[in-house]
């Protein structure tokens, strides 16, 4: 799966964060080996690495020592690591620095309540502030309204993903669009 995703995205000069791959979790050794093979061409020069793996909080907490070791090994060649669905799992805040990560993805459950639930807004602000203090990038998932976008921008340097920006697109469709808009050399 990882090699398919990489070959689909390779050479497209897409922004950091693409591609992502969930199937690596549970097969850590093969994932580290695959990333070592892929990263020389995916990560020609920092910060040009386009390979990013998303790991849920639950996956992080299964075998803490082993996962921390694997994440460090993945980051050596330049792979970026994101914690997906942040705020919905059972992790301890003390583990955030132990795991070698680059980005937190705020779960859509928090984002959907912006504008209607002050407590969720406070929790979202706290995650953004904490991520900023720890020098993590932040992506808010499920941004669907301008009100949500404005709240997130007002409270920190947060990237967003969701229907406000566009509907989901398959990898094959992205490849077709990239070919259509490829620079002529």
Q: Which of globular, elongated, flat, extended, rod-shaped describes the shape?
A: globular
What is the string of SSEs from the N terminus onward? Answer: HHEHHEEHHEHEH
The radius of gyration is 17 Å
How much strand? 5-15%
Question: What count of structural domains?
Answer: 2
Distance between the termini: 31 Å
What would the average pLDDT be, to the nearest integer? Answer: 75
Looking across the biggest beta sheet, what order are the strands in?
1-2-3-4-5
Estimated structural class = alpha/beta
Query: What's the helical proportion of residues?
Result: 40-55%
Q: Unreliable runs, pLDDT <50, ≥5 residues?
A: 1-23
Number of helices: 8
Could you give a short account of the major beta sheet?
5 strands, parallel
Strand segment count: 5
């Amino acid at each position: 799966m990882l090699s398919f995703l990489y070959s689909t995205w390779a050479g497209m000069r897409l922004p950091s964060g693409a591609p992502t791959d969930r199937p690596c979790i549970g097969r850590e050794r093969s994932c580290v080996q695959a990333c070592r093979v892929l990263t020389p061409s995916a990560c020609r020069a920092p910060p040009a690495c386009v390979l990013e793996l998303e790991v849920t909080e639950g996956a992080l907490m299964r075998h803490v020592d082993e996962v921390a070791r694997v994440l460090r090994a993945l980051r050596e060649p330049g792979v970026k690591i994101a914690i997906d669905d942040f705020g919905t799992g059972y992790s301890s805040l003390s583990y955030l620095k132990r795991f070698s990560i680059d980005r937190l993805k705020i779960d859509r459950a928090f984002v959907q309540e912006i504008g209607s639930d002050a407590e969720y807004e406070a929790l979202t602000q706290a995650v953004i502030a904490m991520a900023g203090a720890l020098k993590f990038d932040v992506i808010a998932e499920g941004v669907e309204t301008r009100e949500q976008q404005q709240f997130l921008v007002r409270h920190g340097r947060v990237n967003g993903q969701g229907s406000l920006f566009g509907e989901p697109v398959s990898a094959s469709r992205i490849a077709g669009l990239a070919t259509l808009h490829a620079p002529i050399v």
